[in-house]
């Protein structure tokens, strides 16, 4: 396909208040709460103020820097520091083993699989990768989904579908362009999604 036939990346927005996506999100939030409860127990035992998940690894925050012989700073975010135990020390190895047994819960974007969306990159443009995301509010419930999109002409999609079904060619990006929203996903304009988010933020202030 030539560059002239490849549409620029845009985004589609959806509002969701019921259905399988909400049900899956609730399951994931329950998993996250259980996992964090267990991690908070370890945080309390080691004198940390809170646990945190970073790149699917459990890290811990402390009010003051913990002993360097036992803990090392694994991640910095502004003035915040996140630590993990050092295995070469006896105490560090003990806590590293305890932390390793903690369950790493699913990310909320994993819920998108129930509406046939991937949480990973679905569209690429130049050096930029774009993935569907979901965010929102449990009370309601009310969630928004942002989906990267390329609006191919129908004849191009039909030609691709024929080649794919014949086993001649396959493309994840083109498969994504054939995605059909679940009936419980109400498509809205970007300004509507932004207004919903702004209104919720103002109500919570």
Set out the fold topology.
Elements: E1 10-16, H1 20-46, E2 50-54, E3 57-61, E4 71-77, E5 80-85, H2 90-100, E6 123-125, E7 128-130, E8 133-137, E9 142-149, H3 154-165, H4 172-177, E10 185-188, H5 190-204
Antiparallel strand pairs: 1-9, 1-10, 2-3, 4-5, 6-7, 8-9
Q: How many structural domains can be distinguished in the coordinates? A: 2
Q: Give the beta-strand count.
A: 10
Strand order of the largest sheet: 8-9-1-10
Largest sheet: 4 strands, antiparallel
**Strand/helix succession:** EHEEEEHEEEEHHEH
Description:
By secondary structure, the protein is of the alpha+beta class. It has two domains: 3-27 and 107-204, no CATH class; 33-100, no CATH class. It is 35% helix and 26% strand. The protein is built from five helices and ten strands. It has helices at 20-46, 90-100, 154-165, 172-177, 190-204, and strands spanning 10-16, 50-54, 57-61, 71-77, 80-85, 123-125, 128-130, 133-137, 142-149, 185-188. Strands 8-9-1-10 form a four-stranded antiparallel beta sheet, covered by helices on one side. Strand 2 (50-54) and strand 3 form a beta hairpin. The longest helix is centred in the first third of the chain and has 27 residues, at 20-46. It is elongated. It starts with 9 loop residues before the first strand and ends with a helix.
Features:
two-stranded antiparallel ribbon, 10 strands, four-stranded antiparallel β-sheet, about 200 residues
């Amino acid at each position: 396909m030539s560059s002239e036939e490849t549409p620029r990346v845009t985004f589609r927005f959806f509002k969701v208040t019921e259905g399988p996506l909400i049900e899956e999100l609730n399951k994931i939030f329950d998993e996250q709460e259980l996992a964090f409860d267990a991690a908070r127990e370890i945080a309390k035992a080691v004198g940390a103020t809170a646990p945190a998940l970073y790149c699917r690894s459990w890290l811990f925050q402390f009010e003051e820097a913990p002993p360097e012989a036992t803990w090392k700073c694994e991640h910095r975010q502004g003035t915040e520091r996140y630590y993990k135990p050092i295995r070469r020390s006896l105490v560090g190895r003990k806590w590293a083993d305890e932390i390793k047994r903690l369950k790493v819960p699913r990310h909320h974007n994993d819920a998108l699989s129930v509406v046939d969306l991937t949480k990973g990159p679905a569209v690429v443009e130049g050096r930029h990768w774009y993935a569907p995301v979901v965010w929102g509010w449990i009370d309601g419930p009310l969630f928004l989904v942002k989906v990267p999109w390329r609006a191919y002409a129908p004849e191009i999609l039909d030609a691709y579908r024929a080649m794919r079904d014949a086993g001649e060619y396959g493309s994840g990006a083109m498969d994504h362009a054939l995605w059909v929203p679940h009936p419980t996903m109400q498509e809205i304009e970007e300004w509507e999604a932004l207004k919903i988010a702004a209104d919720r933020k103002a109500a919570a202030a």
